[in-house]
Design a protein that fits this description.
Blueprint lengths: L1 E6 L19 E2 L2 E2 H11 L4 E6 L4 H8 L8 E6 L6 H7 L1 H4 L4 E5 L2 E3 L4 H9 L4 E7 L7 E5 L5 E6 L8 E9 L2 H8 L10 H10 L4 E5 L4 E3 L3 H15 L8 E2 L4 E3 L2 E3 L4 E3 L2 E3 L2 E3 L4 E3 L2 E2 L3 E3 L4 E3 L2 E3 L2 E2 L4 E3 L5 E2 L2 E2 L4 E3 L22
Parallel strand pairs: 1-4, 1-6, 4-5, 8-12, 14-17, 15-18, 16-19, 17-20, 18-21, 19-22, 20-23, 21-24, 22-25, 23-26, 24-27, 25-28, 26-29
Antiparallel strand pairs: 2-3, 6-11, 7-13, 8-11, 9-10
């Protein structure tokens, strides 16, 4: 059994964060989103993993993630030179996959359920494909499945105007080698891509054994800022177990709740209320860090109130005398108060930025 993880794409919904980096490397609770998928796959006993990368961000993914030794896996990188669809990603991965059955995992998805029972189900029932589903309130925004009472998939529809159900496709699929024949039989969609939904529908039309299972735990798509913050909150709530304080705290700093602080970090006159994770080599002084905040490595915060926010590596924030909430601060960003508060607002805002004034 092998696995492929998709880590390409442009991440347009997370701009400007993804102008200079891969969306799958944006951290949730101070761990790249991509790594959660790798860990989930390895926990299911699959250690031969191919990661689909793009020309724009592939080198960053390779540098950050390495050869798999960190995870107890063997990682092969597969370049997809342009975004041509999920089925195209499977097509270019064929030399890596051979005739092995495999799991395909979208690298910007997070799920709570383990893969082990799904993998066992897939193998024992000799399925050709097994897809994961989850009820959603807005099925028109997803690929949607129609299934019978036994879990057999009847048809798939990509972002339907009139959905046949509210069961959205989660970005995790199990396939055997017949999926390659199905991909060879389909044509590009109206948007010029080879769609995995079309390939699965082709399997159904050819009477292959395709089933679905609904996941029980949470499923998080981290494609937008609010999704990223929600994912950060849920991961801190459920996964921050037995946190360690390895940094240096002065006598005025107060810690309550589940708080993790990395080595080399120093907190002076701070109040931290968990769940919170603070990375390595950070400097925090005269700060309040509220629940559901993640502060990455090498961050400097001075005179800052922060809550329900994510601050990425190397950012510096100082002298902001209003609480920062529901925010994502990018790598090496500098945020500070002007020496004299102007009567008018002055901005320098880059392309595709989103600014909220309250």
């Amino acid at each position: 059994m092998k696995a492929i993880i998709l880590s390409g794409g442009k991440g347009t919904r997370l701009r400007p964060l993804t102008y200079t980096g891969a969306k799958q490397l944006v951290p949730v609770a101070n761990k790249p989103i991509l790594w959660y998928g790798i860990e989930s796959i390895v926990a299911a006993g699959i250690t031969d993993i191919g990661i689909i990368i793009s020309p724009e961000t592939g080198e960053e993914v390779k540098t950050k993630t390495g050869n798999g030794e960190l995870f107890g896996a063997n990682i092969t990188y597969i370049l997809q030179d342009k975004p041509a669809g999920l089925a195209h990603a499977v097509k270019i991965a064929r030399p890596f996959l051979g005739d092995s059955p495999f799991v395909m995992y979208l690298g910007d998805n997070l799920i709570q359920d383990t893969l082990n029972p799904l993998l066992t189900n897939f193998k024992e029932q000799h399925m050709d494909a097994l897809i994961m589903l989850r009820p959603v309130p807005n099925p028109t925004s997803f690929g949607v499945a129609e299934v019978d009472a036994q879990g057999k998939v009847l048809r798939l529809v990509e972002k339907p105007k009139v959905p046949p159900s509210n069961l959205a496709l989660v970005g995790i699929y199990f396939f055997n080698q017949v999926i390659h024949d199905a991909i060879d039989r389909i044509q590009p969609s109206a948007r010029g891509e080879l769609e995995i939904t079309d390939a699965i529908q082709n399997l159904i039309d050819h009477q292959n054994h395709v089933e679905a299972r609904q996941i029980e735990g949470w499923w998080l798509d981290t494609g937008k800022k609010d999704d990223l913050l929600s994912a950060n909150q849920i991961i801190l709530d459920t996964c921050l177990v037995n946190p360690k304080i390895a940094g240096d705290l002065d006598e005025k700093t107060q810690i309550s709740g589940r708080v993790q602080i990395g080595e080399g970090s120093r907190l002076i006159n701070c109040t931290v209320r968990g769940p919170v994770t603070i990375g390595k080599n950070c400097h925090l002084e005269n700060c309040f860090i509220g629940p559901y905040s993640s502060v990455a490595d090498q961050v400097s915060l001075t005179d800052v109130d922060l809550e329900h926010s994510v601050v990425l590596q190397g950012a510096q924030i100082s002298g902001i005398h209003q609480r920062i909430v529901d925010s994502v601060i990018g790598q090496r960003a500098h945020l500070k108060a002007a020496p004299h508060r102007p009567k008018a607002l002055r901005f320098m805002i880059g392309d595709d930025c989103q600014v909220e004034l309250v």
